[in-house]
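Retro notes (design track)

What went well: tokenization of the new backbones is finally stable.
What didn't: we kept losing track of which sequence belonged to which structure.
Fix going forward: every design gets posted as structure first, then sequence, in one message. First example under the new rule, 435 residues:
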């Protein structure tokens, strides 16, 4: 799918966000490991989360989808998964592979996790090495640092592990393996990675304890309990619409029911530091997760320097920060973000190359980029490189371009925000969709 974005005459309205991708993955996996029937509303129906459901089905979990964005899962308990007859296809989803690796490390059977060519290039040593230290048998390419990954699980023992880099996926893989290990498993964080795993496991009765940057877990004495929950809207996806409002003259957009977990709101802090007009309202809690409505209005932005722990809490949103920076007054410097190079694409190289096509003044750095603004962007063809966040960032850039912007290979947007183009249309953007 290709999108042609035309600069809008006005950009206003309210959008209810699709479910948070990180929480949708976790809700499905934890529900499978619980006992009883879980019902998950506002489950993200994108490709990545569908890959997780497909893997769980192959492991013997009964899953129904009785309505759009609604999933019913019959939990099989911690010991009820079955040996799969086929390789488990994670498609393009790194989250599926890394979280399921923690589960499969504790299962007394053979299993193989595989995925797309793109996923096979993504590093997996950060999860396989601590799992091997827990006595899991893990085989794979280049000493089990690249997929496909084969597991012969069971017989795990506890570990006290200090993560070299803050990563919610690594932390979650170890904590999930800890559900099946003898003794107390401890993970020490060097920075504030996402804590959705800890929050939801506690709600479901998991023996998780958090002491600052130290998280511990042990084998549960009782079953995890099923849940009926609504997944909060995805703040990472909302960031693209928030940025659209901030940079488009006269715009005002409200994203309703979005997750505002403090470990995920780095993007709101960044935008506020840039001078953004943001309003948070209707704050509440749902299954351990804070939720609110966020309203963004157009205003003058300023360039800032971003680095350190804030990067960890906004890593997925940095492509749209680059777009916002093209319209900010002064220089914006992103540093300490080398992690961007091992996402779905090398997001540093790709966002720099594609924004330059539109006329942006942006310079690549080893661990980030420098943007000078404001710059009048021009209409031109750009390419997503199969990266959903890059595709959405480029579409938002088209809102302030002097002519239409063609975003090629935009079908990948459905990985995290199915219906993104319809949301733009609802807000007043003329979007042409070509297959």
């Amino acid at each position: 799918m290709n999108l042609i974005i035309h600069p809008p005459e006005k950009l206003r309205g309210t959008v209810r966000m699709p479910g948070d991708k990180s929480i949708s993955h976790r809700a499905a996996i934890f529900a499978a490991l619980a006992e009883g029937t879980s019902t998950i509303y506002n489950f993200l129906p994108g490709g990545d989360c569908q890959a997780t459901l497909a893997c769980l089905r192959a492991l013997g979990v009964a899953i129904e989808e009785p309505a759009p964005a609604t999933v019913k899962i019959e939990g099989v308990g911690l010991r009820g998964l079955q040996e799969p007859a086929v390789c488990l296809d994670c498609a393009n989803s790194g989250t599926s592979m890394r979280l399921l690796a923690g589960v499969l490390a504790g299962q007394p059977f053979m299993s193989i996790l595989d995925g797309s060519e793109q996923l096979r290039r993504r590093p997996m040593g950060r999860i396989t090495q601590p799992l091997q230290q827990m006595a899991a048998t893990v085989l794979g390419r280049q000493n089990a640092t690249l997929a496909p990954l084969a597991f012969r699980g069971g017989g795990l023992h506890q570990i006290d592990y200090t993560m070299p880099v803050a990563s919610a996926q690594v932390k979650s893989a170890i904590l999930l393996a800890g559900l099946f290990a003898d003794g107390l498993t401890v993970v020490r964080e060097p920075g504030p990675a996402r804590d959705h795993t800890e929050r939801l496991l506690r709600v479901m009765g998991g023996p998780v304890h958090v002491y600052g940057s130290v998280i511990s877990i042990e084998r549960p004495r009782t079953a995890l309990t099923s849940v009926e929950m609504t997944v909060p809207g995805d703040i990472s996806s909302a960031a693209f619409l928030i940025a659209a409002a901030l940079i488009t003259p006269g715009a005002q957009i409200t994203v309703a029911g979005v997750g505002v977990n403090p470990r995920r709101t780095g993007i709101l802090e960044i935008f506020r530091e840039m001078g953004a007009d943001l309003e948070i309202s209707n704050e509440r809690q749902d299954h351990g997760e804070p939720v609110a409505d966020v309203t963004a209005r157009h205003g003058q932005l300023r360039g800032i320097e971003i680095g350190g722990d804030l990067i960890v809490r906004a890593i997925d949103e940095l492509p749209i920060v680059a777009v916002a920076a093209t319209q900010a007054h002064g220089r914006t410097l992103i540093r300490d973000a080398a992690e961007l190079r091992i996402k779905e694409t090398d997001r540093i190289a790709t966002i720099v190359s594609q924004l330059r096509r539109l006329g942006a003044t942006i310079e690549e750095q080893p661990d980030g980029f420098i943007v000078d603004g404001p710059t009048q962007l021009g209409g031109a063809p750009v390419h997503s490189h199969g990266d959903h966040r890059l595709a959405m960032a480029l579409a938002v850039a088209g809102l302030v371009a002097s002519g239409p912007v063609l975003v090629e290979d935009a079908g990948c947007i459905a990985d995290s925000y199915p219906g993104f183009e319809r949301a733009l249309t609802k807000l007043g953007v003329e979007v042409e969709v070509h297959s």
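Added context from the reviewer: The chain has a mean pLDDT of 96.
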